[in-house]
Amino acid sequence: MEERFIIDLWVNNRFGVLNRITGLYSKRGYNIETIHAGPTDVPGVTKIEIVSTGDDYMRTQVISQLEKLYDIRKVDLRTEMTGD
Amino acid sequence: MRLKGATILIEELLRQGVDTVFGYPGGAVLDIYDELYKYSDRIDHVITAHEQGACHAADGYARASGKTGVVIATSGPGATNLVTGIANANLDSVPLVAITGNVSVNALGRDSFQEVDIVGITQPIVKHNFMVRHVQELEQTIKEAFLIANSGRKGPVLIDIPKNVQTDTCEYGIAVVPRMPDKPKLPYVKDKVLEAIRNSTKPFIYCGGGVIAASAEQEVLELSHRLDAPVGLSMMGRTALPDSYDYNLGMCGMHGEYAASKAQSECDLMLAIGVRFSDRATGDLNEYTKKCTVIHIDIDKAEFGKNVDPDFCLQGDVKAILQDLLKDLKGVRHPEWREEITEFKKTKTPDRPGEFCPKNIIEAVRRHMQDSTVVATDVGQHQMWTVQYYDFEQPRTLLTSGGLGTMGYGLGAAIGGCIGSGRKRTVLFTSEGSFGMNLNELCTVVSQDLPITIVVLDNNVLGMVRQWQGIFYEGRYSQTTLNRKTDFAALANAFGAKGYSVATLEELEKVLTETDTGDKGAYLIDCHINQDEKVLPMIPPGKSIKNIILKG
Predict the structure, then answer these.
(1) CATH number of the structural domain B191-345
(2) Scanning B32, B75, B267, B429, which has its CA 20 to 30 A from the CA of B392?
(3) What DSSP designation does B444 have?
(4) In sequence order, which residues have a C-beta less than 8 Å from that of residue B414 and are 6 or more positions away?
(5) Where in B276-381 does DSSP place strands (E)?
């Protein structure tokens, strides 16, 4: 079932890290609805929130592929939201 | 010790155990090549005809030797010429470090001469890549690149080094030893797995390139003995077990052996080890695992459930996992299953004694080679015939483009494989289509004095595409009849190798005897075969063993 979900990412703030992340979505044809990035208390670490919609398979794939990226320190699947 | 960037690069390559690099010089890597000149007694640089050839050579070197391959190219076109080779290494999980020069940092982004954003271009086809903007980052970056390329699921890493970073100086020998960041892993729960294995009466082991990457060949063999389980291989898993082992059924999938694909479809338990279930291997996913429980063992968490939903997953180094499982598994016998397998093995493509056909050609070549001979292939029909008919006895003796299917891979790979195996006689099976793509590297074979035997299975057509046109497009052979007039034997002679042209088994045997000169001499044998030769068996794309085509 298609559901909207939020993924929180903690990433090393290096050149191109956002490219790598959005590239994973676009390669598989997954749409990003909202993306938000900002600094954290840890120097050099940025937090990124991504809202998108997809089924279980898509969600699992996105998370496990994101986890593999060298510059990603942590991936969290946050609250799942149904409807608006 | 204060050194300039280019010197730091070479010093660090030496520390990483690199003694051979492949590449092509150019404006943006002049300083690196100046250092290579000074270090030529410690690092061997192999100049190719084209950066793509260098990249495939580094890939072939890595596959044959198990070490990380290194390729160097200049900025702009030098860098973009690496792209196919990098994608090829990525899809087959080959450890490769590609080093490119770039324009100076202050010229970046200004469309300077020979400037491309190679980090951006290669981003979807590398395991990771780096742009080094300050010489102070260089040492650490190289250490990280080698670590990433050769740890976990291996793969290519690119380092882009602007010109000023090569000439700037800084202290060397101060970087910390990096370690791979901790990533979430699946919990390791083996009780249910062991139970499933013990309950099975028709176990089947399916092993892929991950077995070779982890050097787990002995463990797989032991598991097969212990469970009395036949083994099928993916194309990347070919050479994981010797062909002389009677329970090695050969390759599964689209052009696999009937017995291997049939056993895979009839088993009640599939132990899938170091495989990623490519569509060419599985066919129809609904039929593929209908009758069996699937245990998937792999180092890459993202592979579980990507194409096939396993019942159980074990994540980690496959060698360590198999060693652990073997501790808890006693020997069993499954005589009825063995009888079924014996029955499956009876269905074969028929022998054609005396005919000048691919099987007989490949077997004739094999008789003149050693078990340790490295064999490279290009892509297409000849590749499938080699994988089907060549008798492989030792791991890492097959260099073939699995995931990307890169026509033109073979000659570069054969060069790298030959050097990576100590400059021993190496064979390339190719075809006039694939060979035509990168035959320029013949000059490298000759200038490096490499003992490579090139066997061209020459059918005057783009055979694999033609085969599909024949079966699925009602024989409309669009643009696959080449009708080229290239005299490959004369071409080989022109490059400084020795060329032969043969059309019968007797002629071939004579040439093979004449060219059986140990680890000296570069030869090309152009074998003229019939254009209607087919690769069989064939399971049509998206179909199952039920739809297997056995006869042409």
Answers:
(1) 3.40.50.1220
(2) B267
(3) H
(4) B60, B374, B376, B399, B426, B427, B428, B445, B452, B454
(5) 293-298, 312-315, 374-377
Contact of B305 with chain A, judged by CB distance below 8 Å, is answered with yes
pLDDT one-digit tens code per residue, B470-488 = 999 999 999 999 999 999 9
A20:B123 CB<8 A: yes
Q: How is residue A64 annotated by DSSP?
A: H
pLDDT in tens, B30-67: 999 999 999 999 999 999 999 999 999 999 999 999 99
Among A16, A23, A68, the residue with its CB nearest the CB of B302 is A68
| Residue among B378, B548, B391, B364 nearest B464 (CA) | B378
Nearest to B305 among A60, A68, A73 (CB): A60
Q: Which residue of B has its CA nearest to A67?
A: B183
The dotted CATH code for B358-528 is 3.40.50.970
pLDDT digits (tens, 9 = 90+) for B94-143: 999 999 999 999 999 999 999 999 999 999 999 999 999 999 999 999 99
Answer yes or no: do A27 and B124 touch at CB < 8 A: yes
CB count within 10 Å of CB B227 equals: 24
**For residue B147, pLDDT beyond 70:** yes
Interface residue A64 vs chain B (CB under 8 A): yes
B194-216: pLDDT as tens digits: 999 999 999 999 999 999 999 99
Residue positions of B annotated with a catalytic role: 51, 113-114, 163, 464
Mean pLDDT over all residues of chain B?
97
Give the domain extent around A47. 3-81
User: Which CATH number characterizes residue A64's domain?
Assistant: 3.30.70.260
Q: Residue B66 — left, alpha, or beta (φ > 0 → left; ψ -120 to 50 → alpha)?
A: left
Residue B131 with chain A: CB contacts under 8 Å: 15-16
| Chain B contacts in chain A segment 19-38 (CB below 8 A) | 19-20, 23, 27
Q: Do residue B183 and residue A68 have CB atoms under 8 angstroms apart? A: yes
